[in-house]
Write a sequence for this structure.
């Protein structure tokens, strides 16, 4: 099956952009079903890409290959082996093995957690190959257990029902290790998993700036990653704050797993920063790693307001010469947006700011330059400088 696309869409495909939007397809879509494999052609009928189509989705075509080739089990195995081979030198027994479009398998996420797999299907086109993908991964990795999930949010947009199943044995908590630090991961309850593989490198970088005995406030701490690094590796005094009781409980368990202690607070970070400010307490390092404030372009303005709020209040809690690590996990709030937020906050507090690190997602979440959406995690580590 073939579809013809507009001149603009054709040019983008020739430059390896992986998507074609519905309004760029010239061929009537009535005869196509979600997940059908199609070839994209330009006006001269030259094949530009092979991939899958879904008439229900705004992103109607997603490229699997920029060649005229068959998409079968052999093709999928080649892609999967290629993706996994790129993760061999990561200092952890947990890694994102397949990252959707950035590994040229759009709609597929595969995370490896110490001999266990978490597989997420995000599109009808990938669900079509579900059995082949599971078979390939089982043969290659021989996992003890696999959690297979058809993501509810994504599949709803695709017009197909979400699903979840377990293959093999999954313990209530899997223990993983990175850079010598252990964490519990709950694979069976995805809302509790709360482990961000993409921050692995940043946890290490930020901790290198911590001195022994310093006070660290880990906001939006989730399962305690940044704070635990500071406590375990630098013997810092750490307080973890998160609105989720389950997240804080998991953070406590992670600290205990590593034989260290900490303070743990269940609170709304926005309110908590204000409350602590009134008490006059100060910190050497504050981590601000909130969940995505901007799921789409329309949410950007509100997201920026949220970043300004937490950054301004955190600056007021910082000791002279202290540092803040500020992160955005949304594509729509970029590095320059974060810098503008910090600059505005510094004007209010009359503080000089030195940027010490630009921080991005770890290498198991590759950034493909031709696909700007593959870069979503940005952060800056900055210092309040005395003048």
């Amino acid at each position: 099956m073939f579809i013809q696309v507009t001149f603009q869409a054709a040019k983008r495909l020739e430059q390896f952009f992986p998507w074609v939007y519905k309004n760029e397809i010239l061929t009537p879509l009535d005869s196509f079903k979600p997940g059908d494999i199609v070839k994209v052609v330009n006006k001269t009928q030259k094949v530009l890409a092979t991939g899958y189509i879904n008439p229900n989705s705004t992103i109607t075509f997603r490229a699997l290959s920029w060649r005229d080739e068959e998409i079968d089990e052999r093709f999928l195995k080649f892609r999967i082996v290629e993706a996994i081979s790129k993760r061999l030198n990561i200092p952890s027994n947990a890694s994102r093995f397949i990252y959707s479009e950035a590994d040229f398998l759009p709609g597929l996420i595969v995370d490896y957690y110490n001999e266990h797999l978490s597989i997420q299907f995000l599109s009808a086109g990938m669900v079509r190959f579900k059995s082949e993908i599971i078979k390939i991964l089982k043969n290659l990795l021989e996992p003890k257990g696999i959690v297979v999930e058809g993501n509810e949010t994504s599949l709803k947009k695709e017009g197909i029902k979400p699903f979840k199943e377990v293959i093999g044995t999954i313990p209530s908590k899997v223990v993983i290790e990175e850079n010598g630090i252990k964490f519990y991961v709950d694979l069976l309850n995805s809302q509790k998993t709360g482990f961000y593989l993409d921050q692995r490198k940043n946890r290490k970088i930020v901790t290198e700036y911590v001195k022994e005995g310093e006070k660290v406030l880990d906001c939006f701490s989730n399962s305690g990653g940044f704070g635990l690094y500071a406590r375990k590796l630098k013997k810092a005094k750490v307080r973890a704050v998160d609105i989720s009781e389950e997240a804080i409980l998991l953070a406590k368990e992670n600290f205990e797993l590593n034989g260290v202690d900490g303070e743990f607070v269940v609170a709304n970070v926005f309110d908590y920063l204000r409350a602590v400010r009134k008490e006059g307490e100060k910190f050497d390092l504050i981590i601000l790693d909130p969940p995505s404030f901007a799921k789409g372009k329309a949410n950007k303005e509100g997201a920026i307001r949220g970043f300004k709020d937490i950054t301004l209040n955190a600056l007021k809690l910082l000791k002279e010469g202290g540092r803040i690590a500020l992160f955005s996990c949304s594509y729509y709030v970029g590095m320059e947006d974060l810098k503008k937020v910090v600059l505005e906050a510094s004007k209010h507090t009359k503080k000089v700011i030195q940027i010490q690190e630009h921080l991005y997602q770890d290498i198991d979440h590759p950034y493909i330059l031709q696909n700007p959406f593959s870069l979503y995690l940005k952060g800056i580590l900055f210092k309040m400088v005395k003048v």
